[in-house]
């Protein structure tokens, strides 16, 4: 009896309940409209972001026909403003202005933020050094000619205008190391930067860093004379002088007196780097350099001593398949040997390549590798190759 009553009540409620309207015919509620708008906005924002990023990246990499003027500054707001205004008024020397602020406290950062597209800039929260700031500017530069002004006198004179035109014709002012470099800055074609790489950030004074740069230019036969640090007309720090000597050896001339001469056919400074060394750039990936090839190691940076290179230097070697470190060793290739006169060489593709200094060994972590003595008779069995040099020290994180 109870079951019959329950069944009848359930049937009656089912018949009397209102029929549900199909969601297809129901008009959208305010919540539905908001959710639709929110989804469309998010979708459009995501699409616009990626498109803008792609366009910005492609535009950033496009080079300019004119000159990029790189100006590292620290508390020189007034002279900087005057220079920017003068360049904007000079229609004969159109250029891209790049200002790197090194932790100024005189309002330079605010001036740069309000520049309204007059120039490109990077603001460092603290002073990373003039050479580090120059490297940041070189990374940002897009011009076919690169002018670097680090001295107050360079901002108050038009001295580099002639140099800009010369560099644009294919000549390099790296050859003019000396008084001009110490007073006004440096100017060079972009191709020179591509071949030589960044400045060494371990130098405190840009004048000595440029001297170091000129030695690299000499190795590539870009200038006719090996520069001497004594030729720099400004007082230089003892720290920089000692570092220069330790990097290039007490008498770099000995290498050239041995019979090796600069070869203009060498493409870039990477040819002077050793083989059988481990390197890394700004990311966690670690690579092995072996005979003009770059191999990605299976394990990343943890526990591996790797030499820090700039991205520009890293890309000098084509990347091949991923391998483990033990697969990179090949007989005597990469081994170190030493002749009775104390000169250390690395064996590379059947040639003996002289190591310029102990700093070179330390920078490439080759100082931990055993050195085998050989006689002069054994040395004579090898052809002498190009010298091994140290890479520039890079401290700036995104180079």
UniProtKB/TrEMBL annotation:
Superkingdom of the source species: Bacteria
A Pfam family it matches: Glycos_transf_2
One Gene Ontology molecular-function label: transferase activity
Keyword Transferase: yes
Location of the Glycosyltransferase 2-like domain: 68-149
Keywords: Transferase
Start and end residues of each stretch annotated as Disordered: 1-30
Name of this protein: Glycosyltransferase
Gene3D superfamilies cross-referenced by the UniProt entry: Spore Coat Polysaccharide Biosynthesis Protein SpsA, Chain A
